[in-house]
Amino acid sequence: MNILAIESSCDETAAAVVRDGRTVLSNEIFSQADMHALYGGVVPEIASRSHITVISRLADEAVRKVGLLKSDLDAVAVTAAPGLIGALLVGVNFAKGAALALGVPLIPVHHVRGHIAANYLAFPELEPPFLCLAISGGNTAIVDVRGYTDMSIVGATVDDAAGECFDKAARVLGLPYPGGLPLQRLAEGGDDTAFKLPHAHVEGHPYDMSFSGLKTAVVNAAHTAAQKGGDLNRAGLAASFQRAVSETLVPRTMDAARDLGYDTVVVAGGVAANARIRADFEAACRREGRRLFVPPLRLCGDNAAMIGCQGYYEYLAGVTAGQELNAYATMDIDKVRF
Ligand code: KG4
């Protein structure tokens, strides 16, 4: 089954063709990061307009590059939630038109389910059940993945997403948007004990997380240095910040895996590219004898291949939509209704 997949939930426009769920035939991505860098974050209106200008060409390339004809496509999958509403609507409307014109089923996909599915593309042996930490620019959750389309949230951030926090900390440190990778690079030469930063606990919810206090602490540390007129230890602050994020994410995920009896731990989403977090998970899983799966860097960020993969499993579970399909800015991963 050849699925044409479309992703436009934030600042990447992407189109892919995926065969039978796990074979990526093409995976085209156009990143708008440079357009938003000027503003220090994603400008929704610019994102929507840019998606409109490139989506048809990308989809066409994704099909033609691998020598397929439009008649070789068996379904169209699209990210329909969560994300920036205007951005999502561009992809959803394009996908609706494509499915109608081709006379094939339309499959709505939850974006974070797609991030989890990126691991199926990288690791043929991986199958649910497992415990997954999904960490991206807009979402941070520990997910009990019982089946390909059967999952529930075990714990989540009560305020900012981990990626959002990385981007904000990077901005304070004078780094460009998106800030995750530049912050990681700055942290490489830094002492991760240079600053004492908060690790918040959510009373009564051991797997939940909070990042807003950490974000404020980084802002305050930078402002204090500026007011005193002294040099800010930028590398030390970046390293201490990364450590605080990792020490929030890794132990909670490992505790949840142990408590729920999972020997397989999966990490997904843009922040899964972070070297410190990857290293800390590797050490923790080795210590506890659990299998760890983290996607290769090229599959951590937003892409359409992961949507084609998850779309295949949604289709097998009977999930399709008609021309009335809408996009939704928010939707829980365990309450997917299109
Ligand atoms: O998954 P993604 O591409 O988009 C969403 O679905 O949100 O994630 C983007 C986020 C951004 O906040 C970016 O700064 C972060 O992933 N990111 C990183 C790294 N690479 C990307 N964060 C930390 N370390 C990295 N190496």
| Percent strand | 15-25%
- Radius of gyration, in Å, reads 20 Å
> What kind of sheet is the major sheet?
5 strands, mixed
Instruction: Compute the number of strand runs.
Output: 10
> What would the CATH topology of the largest domain be?
Nucleotidyltransferase, domain 5
N-to-C series of helices and strands: EEEHHEHEHEEEHHHHEHEH
Quick one: overall form? globular
The number of distinct helices, counting runs of at least 4 residues, comes to 10
Question: Could you describe the 3D structure shown?
Answer:
The protein has helices at 33-37, 44-64, 85-102, 111-122, 162-172, 180-187, 212-228, 234-260, 275-288, 305-316; strands spanning 2-7, 12-19, 23-31, 75-81, 106-110, 130-135, 140-147, 150-156, 264-268, 291-293. The model has no long low-confidence stretch (mean pLDDT 96). A five-stranded mixed β-sheet has the order 3-2-1-4-5, sandwiched between helices. Strands 8-7-6-9-10 form a five-stranded mixed β-sheet, with helices on both faces. It is globular and about 65 Å long. It contains ten helices and ten strands. The two termini are 22 Å apart. The protein folds into two domains: 2-115 and 300-316, Nucleotidyltransferase, domain 5 (2-Layer Sandwich), CATH 3.30.420.40; 128-298, ATPase, nucleotide binding domain (Nucleotidyltransferase, domain 5). Strand 6 and strand 7 form a beta hairpin. It has 338 residues and is an alpha/beta fold. Helix 4 (111-122) crosses helix 10 (305-316). It binds 5'-O-[(R)-(carboxyoxy)(hydroxy)phosphoryl]adenosine (KG4). 5'-O-[(R)-(carboxyoxy)(hydroxy)phosphoryl]adenosine is lined by residues 10, 136-138, 163, 166-167, 178-181, 184, 269-271, 273-274, 301-302.
